[in-house]
């Protein structure tokens, strides 16, 4: 029996861009678009109604922006959010990740990479555009930055610390499973517990916390 397709809601205030994204997404046999939204409030309402796996979220939209829409959806555990925007300003990246977005891509992304990112986010993995990843790593690795133990770190078990360190290296669930010799289901459970104990909303936030804590050599 084949797996259910990844359900996606596309949120962008420009109709032409929404149409293009829907065409790309619907071209994949394992992805289906279940809704569209032209502003942040509509994105939240549509996601609540359609229960997608992923919302592909623009940032600059009327009403509430994509950052606030992301914050509301993640707070309610409605779905995962993959931000797709023209603007790669650090403040947008930081705000999106703080809101709980599982990924951040630029609209210049090629179609195959976009489809791969949607699949990854739906599986619980995090995705950052290469340009964004380099800048985040550069900021985290600045010489003046000292390790900071995030609240809740002492509550993690040794295995959960191992998982957190893997997240800090940007490993996917499959890669963590292979490295720690555990099943993907067990990996997902550990990741969920790490997020809960550290009070985080996404694995990308966990990766940053691991870097902050000095768990990544």
TrEMBL record:
Keyword DNA-binding recorded: yes
Classification via Pfam families: GerE, Response_reg
Q: Which SUPFAM superfamilies match?
A: C-terminal effector domain of the bipartite response regulators (SSF46894), CheY-like (SSF52172)
Q: Which UniProt keywords are present, listed alphabetically? A: DNA-binding, Phosphoprotein, Transcription, Transcription regulation
Q: Which positions fall inside the HTH luxR-type domain? A: 149-214
Check the record and name the InterPro entries matching this protein. CheY-like_superfamily, NreC/VraR/RcsB-like_REC, Sig_transdc_resp-reg_C-effctor, Sig_transdc_resp-reg_receiver, Tscrpt_reg_LuxR_C, WalR-like
Q: Where are the transmembrane segments?
A: none
- Return one GO MF term: DNA binding
Question: Where is each Response regulatory domain found?
Answer: 7-122
Example GO BP: phosphorelay signal transduction system
Q: The organism sits in which domain of life?
A: Bacteria
Which residues carry the post-translational modification 4-aspartylphosphate, per the record?
A: 58
> What is the protein name for this chain?
LuxR family two component transcriptional regulator
Lineage at the top is: Bacteria, Bacillati, Actinomycetota, Actinomycetes, Pseudonocardiales
